[in-house]
Amino acid sequence: MTADLYAAATGLIERCAAAYVSGVPGDAADDGFFGPASVTWRVSTDLASPVAGLRSLLMQALHPLAMAGVDQHSGWRRDPVGRLAATSAYLATITFGERTAAAAAAARVRRIHDHVRGVDTVTGHRYAAGGPALLLWVHAALVQSSLAAGRAFGTPLSADDSDRYVAEMRVAAELVGVPRPLVPASVADLERYVASVRPELRCTPAAAESMGYLLDPPGLDEDVAGFWQDVRDAAIAVLPDWARAMYGYGTPQPPPLAPGRRTEIRQSLGVLDFLFLSEPGVLEARQRITLRMRAARSA
Amino acid sequence: MKARRLAAAAMAGGAAAALTLILLRRRPRRLRYDRGLAALRLFVRGGIRYAGSAPRLFAAAGEKRQLLREDLALQTAEDVADTLGAMKGVMMKIGQMASYVDDGLSPAVRRTLARLQDSVPPMSPQLAAAVVAEELGAPPERAFARWDPRPIAAASIGQVHRAVTRNGRAVAVKVQYPGIAETITADLRNVALLRRMLRITAPAQDVDALLTELRDRIGEELDYRREAEDQRLLAAYYDGHPTIHIPAVVSQLSTRRVMTSELSGGARFAELAGWPQHERDLAAETIYRFVFRSLYEVQAFNGDPHPGNYLFHGGGRVTFLDFGLVKHFTQAELQPLLQMARTVCVEHDQEAFRRSLEDAGFLRPGAPLSTQAIVEHLAVFYDTIRERGPLTITGDYASSVVRRFFDVRSPVAEYISVPRSYVILQRINLGLFAVLGELCATGDWRAIAEEIWPFVQGPPSTPMGEAEAAWRARRQVIAA
Question: CB of B21 within 8 Å of any CB in chain A?
């Protein structure tokens, strides 16, 4: 593993916290694209979010062209934590931000994507990050991961709410440029779509290398590292069997997590959340969101 | 046992310091190489910085407990689980303990902890009512003649409501968050995770002791019946006392998760600032008598003696609240303390003082130190009671006690440790001397101590002492 090519993962929590705070408006002029009554807001405040985030990266990286785009263009190796923080900031803005802020953030991402194009050295295929195919995969991986992580380690959604969540999230895909009719609108649609992409997926050397880094980031603060291990175990546990196999885990199939292990992982997620909350501004941002969700619930 | 010197830090504050480190993410790299030393350094640094502002910060902490965000009220048991489940309740509990157990925390850490503790919202009126109904078998409007659905204060893992009982007594009702005992109990079972948190600062050999301490302390607070028992014990002892008042527990309305006791009015500690010095001195005298009478006669010490738990009525009358953290001592544990006071303050026998320190486990036997140096090092703890005559306890004195407690640079410090059962007594430094220092209280503390010391049983030295002696005489008549 060429981990020394990568910068150390210092300040992961601090920088992701700052990114989160930057995305949650202080005194919102409008409810943004989802709003406090949405399932999306609920999912985004779930304890299992870090697991969802890591699982979606693991899924996204299995698409050779998506991985090539990241590998060849982004500053991922130089500043992996910065890249993760930027993604966190983007997601927070899209989810909780006002419409203008969300649209502006999406426009920025589209502009960046325009320049991300090239040829994948593994498959020999051309790719364009701004093309709907890759964007859709990235989108679907995130949505599916949130559902899977929440089901296993967070507060599971009902079947109806799961469908609502998938439907709500279509707007996120549209914002980065996927035509609406292409975006799955229900859990069943989503699963069909993921199954249809599966033949294209594989663990390329770039995916193995960057995910290896992410699963065991060097330079993580020692006190955070132990908790990150639990997030990693959790994310791997909720991958589809085939995806886990592509990364070389689970041949033969690993035993399912023991019931006690789920509790332990939730406890670790709680500690991480507590650390996150103790960063400047996070508690206040969380309270603003809670109050707006409350108001929407009682309205 | 080379780290016994750390005992005070590790036992009382290790959990706090661990949390501190986790919260502030200081330099993990260094810790890896020399955890014990780094923890000590952090502790000492914090202690010294804290010492300068101890009394003031301390007063502020008591007041902040009143802060309740009703708009964020927890409405369901799920809300409680989201807010306090998955280890978060345990961490806040550690933080709460830290905020008064241990004075080695820097103000910044203290603020972070206070902010997170204060961030726990109250229960909604419906949720609190549901707990009362479950515990007392009837909704609060029927269990009580009158029930105020708005909480008046935050409490340990719960909140306090005002009510009037069906026979007309005004009461304070402490209601525990639903499900919290179960979730915290489950979280305390994850020894591996707790160890991981504690290990970050505490030297390896102390982690298990720390863990035990932590689990014991939190476990005790989860069952209000234990607190009710301690409060009943003290209320019974001080029944009829001229200035010390302990609210009576209403046993029929107290259970594991609900505790009802007589409601007390009175001025808060902060208001005392505007009282004449004479009144402040009287209040201080009562607090002083309460601490040492409880220790030497009830063999109990309230480990949570912060100013938020005192209500003042004038004329020296004080109501003492909140007995969630009472430590009971055996005679065998008390004897060495008395022996130390006696040898150093009354008999002026330095060698005997040294022997009693060694017997109690405070001083390593055979330490290569002159007895003179040992006495000088520890003298500050006895400064208020070495000689008769009025003496004013200043904020500076309180700070110097705290500073000395954390002074590890002295050659003596290396041979000093605090045995586990006495660790809680360091809160006398905070709870008593910081409060008396803040009041700038004057008194003949030695004469009062002589009244209380069982080996002297001195005559009353003040009007309050006279009144107390009369009360004691009445008690004995009743007992006989």
Answer: yes
**Integer Cα distance of B55 and B58 in angstroms:** 5
DSSP string, B193-235: HHHHHHHTTS-GGGHHHHHHHHHHHHHHHH-HHHHHHHHHHHH
Q: Where are the domains of chain A?
A: 3-291
Contact A155 B78 (CB under 8 A): yes
Predicted-complex ipTM score: 0.74
Nearest CA in chain A to B92: A274
> What tokens were used for B259?
């505790």
- The DSSP code sequence of A90-157 is HHHHHHHS-HHHHHHHHHHHHHHHHH-EEE-TTT--EEETTSHHHHHHHHHHHHHHHHHHHHHHS-PP
Provide the CB-side half-sphere exposure for A83 (13 A, CA). Answer: 17
Where are chain B's structural domains? 2-119+180-222, 328-479
* Residue B6 clears pLDDT 80, i.e. is over it: no
CB contact under 8 A, B193 and A264: yes
Q: Do A223 and B29 touch (CB under 8 A)?
A: no
Total Cβ atoms within 10 A of residue B464: 23
| Owner of token pair 């005298």 | B285
Report pLDDT digits (tens) over A270-286: 888 887 887 888 988 99
* Closest chain A CA to residue B31: A222
Across the range A27-48, mean pLDDT stands at 95
Average pLDDT over residues B312-325: 92
Query: Percent of chain B beyond pLDDT 90?
Result: 41
CA dist B335 and B361 (Å) reads 13
Distance from CA of B345 to the nearest CA of A (A): 47
- Chain B residues lying within 8 Å of A42, measured CB to CB: none
How far apart CA B475 and CA A60 sit, in angstroms, is: 78
Residue A273 with chain B: CB contacts under 8 Å:
86, 88
Q: Pairing between strand B317-320 and B244-245?
A: parallel
| C-alpha to C-alpha distance for A279 and A25, rounded to whole angstroms | 17
Over the stretch B82-124, which tens digit does the pLDDT of each residue have? 888 888 888 776 665 554 444 445 555 556 666 666 677 889 9
The DSSP bridge partners found for residue B317 are B314
- Say if the Cβ atoms of B72 and A268 lie within 8 Å: no
User: How does DSSP classify residue B150?
Assistant: S
Pick from B80, B82, B119 the residue to mutate for testing the A interface (most A CBs within 10 Å).
Answer: B82
